[in-house]
C-alpha cells in the first residue's frame, strides 16, 4: 500500500493577496514635524501610515476634540431636563391634590402661587435654551480639517 504524503508546512504567516511592497520616505525639519504631529494628534488615527495615506489621496477627516467643560455642560443639562420632567409630574399631582383636598378659595390662592413659580421656571428655561443654542453654535464652528486640497 502506498501512503499519501502530507505537503510540507514551512510555518509562518500566509502570504497576503495584495501586499504593500512600495515604500516611500520623507524628511521633515522640526517645525514641519511639529505641525505634522499636531495634525496627526487631531485626526484621531492610531497609525501614522493610515493618516499620511488619507492625506495624500485627499480624503477628509474629522477632528474630534473632547472639551471637559462641554462634557460637563451636557451632563448638567441632562440632569436639569430630568428635573424638569419630575417637576412636571409633581405639578400635575399637586394640582389634583389641591382640587380634591382644599376649598375652592384656598385652592385658587395656592394655584396662584404655583403659577408665579411656574412663570419663573419658564424664564429660567428660556435662558437655558438661549445658552444652549449659543453653546451649539460655538461647537459647530470648529468644523473639520480637509487634507490634500
Instruction: Give the oligomer, counting copies of the same chain as homo and different chains as hetero.
Output: single chain
Q: Count the helices. How many? A: 4
* Low-pLDDT stretches: 143-149
Helix content: 55-70%
Q: Structural class per helix/strand content?
A: mainly alpha
Largest sheet descriptor: none
The residue-averaged pLDDT reads 81
State the end-to-end CA separation. 71 Å
Structural domain tally? 2
Number of strands: 0
The rough form would be described as elongated
Order of helices and strands: HHHH
Report the C-alpha radius of gyration, rounded: 32 Å
Strand fraction: under 5%
Describe the structure in brief.
InterPro entries: MobC_2 (IPR045788). The protein has 149 residues and is mostly helical. It contains 4 helices and no strands.
Amino acid at each position: 500500500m502506498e501512503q499519501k504524503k502530507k505537503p510540507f508546512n514551512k510555518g509562518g504567516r500566509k502570504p497576503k493577496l495584495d501586499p504593500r511592497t512600495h515604500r516611500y520616505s520623507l524628511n521633515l525639519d522640526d517645525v514641519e514635524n511639529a505641525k505634522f504631529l499636531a495634525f496627526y494628534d487631531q485626526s484621531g488615527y492610531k497609525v501614522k501610515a493610515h493618516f499620511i495615506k488619507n492625506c495624500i489621496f485627499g480624503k477628509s477627516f474629522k477632528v474630534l476634540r473632547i472639551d471637559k467643560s462641554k462634557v460637563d455642560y451636557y451632563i448638567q443639562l441632562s440632569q436639569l431636563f430630568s428635573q424638569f420632567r419630575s417637576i412636571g409630574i409633581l405639578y400635575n399631582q399637586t394640582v389634583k391634590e389641591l382640587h380634591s383636598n382644599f376649598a375652592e378659595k384656598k385652592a385658587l390662592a395656592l394655584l396662584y402661587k404655583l403659577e408665579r413659580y411656574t412663570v419663573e421656571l419658564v424664564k429660567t428655561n428660556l435662558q437655558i435654551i438661549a445658552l444652549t443654542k449659543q453653546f451649539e453654535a460655538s461647537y459647530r464652528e470648529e468644523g473639520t480639517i480637509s487634507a490634500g486640497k
